[in-house]
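User: For my dataset I need records formatted as: sequence, then structure tokens, nothing else. Please produce one.
Assistant:
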Amino acid sequence: MPAPKIKRALVSVSDKTGVVQFAQSLVAAGVEIYSTGGTRKHLNDAGIAVTDVAQYTQFPEMMDGRVKTLHPKIFAGILCRHDLESDKKSLADHAIETFELVVVNLYPFAATIAKAGITETDAIEQIDIGGPSLVRAAAKNNKFVTVVTSNSQYAEVVSALETSGSTSDALRRRLMAEAFAHTAAYDQTIAQYFTVGEEEEEDFAETININLRRQSVLRYGENSHQKAALYRGPKISEANLIDAQQHNGKQLSYNNLLDLDAALNMVRGLPAPACSVIKHNNPCGAGTGSNLVEACEKGFSGDPVSAFGSVIGINRPVDVATAEFLSAGDFFVEAIVAPGFEGPALEILKTKPKWKKNVRLLSVGQLKPNLPTMEYRNLLGGMLVQQSDNQPDDYANWKVVTENQPDDSIMEELKFGWHMVRFIKSNAICLSKGRGLVGVGAGQMSRVDSVQIAIRKAGPHRATGSVLSSDAFFPFADSIPLAASAGVRAIIQPGGSVRDQEVIAACNEHGIPMVFAGNRHFRH
């Protein structure tokens, strides 16, 4: 049989955005609205006639609203199979009306637990019981009932109502699938919140359920023959690309997003004004300074040739002086991500550079140091999970292992280089000087190759007086003479090789102080 006309709608929403206009459209289409509590008052205040659920069921809301819609007269009206006479007789026997439309979104559990100072009692009171039950009942009976769980679905339902007084099988089926995805994500958020509380001594949950919502379909993936899309998870408190505001330029690509994420993470935890210049997910330059212009100058001087077509990460709002510097440079920039842009600076970047039409300008809000999070990487048939490598370095555990001792200025440079090397693909070597990267060797199969590339990128003038950071130990001493001949004045590495003593002896021979950090920064 065809879907029944929509005569009655049950409307109970926590997010009331757009619900008044939606309800007005329902009334105009001849739909009678039933509602509860805050939603009923909200609609009444807008002049919309609403039947109170408590009046209909002859059973009051109770327990501070914990029990409102959990009643046979509600659920039988939703679950009735309109093509089954026995179901219809049951309704008639008990004076129960049918509901052909259920409009529900759930208590804001995720938003509640994201607030500071929320107690477990607060969180528990935001666990919706009636809402998910209504949604699941309506979704189960989607042959006859339309379920709406988001205000983004209002317009499509109104259009169908105005056309035929009902909704199509295809629309009801799709809304059913979205409803079950909605309740699954809601339950997962609750489960994760309480799992963290009960498994403080255990780093990894027994099971992981990931619910993401598609935000956009991208033009293509890493290559033009690969399809790709961007999905978002629950809103996080840290500044991020998913919630970024784009001020200029065309749609971000798959590769843009990967590079911008790397650029943002590289500068996020630095206290001084900082700039990172990223190409193919590796830094070709980065620097800190007393102001953003100085930081950007260091960033773009790291490897000017490779910086062409790069993306930039900045950890302060972009001011006019920085915008003027970026606009005047003889380079091409794909995208810039920063906490924000001063009004005049934004106009400069949108109008002055040669690459003004295409540059993507993104603001993400105030940056905070990275919080410990988990990283997920797919394997065929499964997934790897690990803690992010974003914990602050423990300088107290650093150990000078050579006869020569680094002075305070060298130690500060080593701290900068050690922060930077964690963002370079292994095997990773970086040379830094004056808080700026001057040479990077990334992703090589042997560490000595990375050393050679970093020295070549720096050139004789900039390598002289630099410090060298290695993300993992030196398996052989062959890199030390190369560093010495290039003028490297200090080295930091994790230590832990069976040939550590040979490497230390080589440093002593060349008069280069070496520090063992005690931890490594592999990035595969």
